[in-house]
Write a structure and sequence with these properties.
single chain; two-stranded parallel sheet; flat
C-alpha cells in the first residue's frame, strides 16, 4: 500500500522548553529510515501556541493536495 498518499505530519510538542537540537535530527533520521519517503516534522508549543497555526496549515494543505490528486 502506498502510504505516501496518507497525509502524515509528525508534530513535536514542548518547543517552549529547552532541549537538545540533536533530538530533531534524530527524529528526522529515524523516520527517514523507517519509510520510503520524507515525512514532514514540525514543532509546536501547546502552552504558548508557537507553531500551532503552521502545523494545521501544513496538514490541511497536504490533505487538499491529496484529494485533488485523486
Amino acid at each position: 500500500k502506498d502510504l505516501s498518499k496518507i497525509p502524515i505530519l509528525v508534530i513535536g510538542n514542548k518547543i517552549d522548553l529547552d532541549f537538545d537540537e540533536r533530538l530533531k535530527e534524530r527524529a528526522s533520521d529515524y523516520l527517514r529510515n523507517q519509510f520510503d519517503y520524507e515525512i514532514p516534522i514540525t514543532y509546536t508549543s501547546a502552552k504558548t501556541g508557537q507553531g500551532m497555526n503552521e502545523a494545521f496549515m501544513q496538514i490541511t494543505e497536504f490533505m487538499v493536495k491529496t484529494i485533488l490528486d485523486e
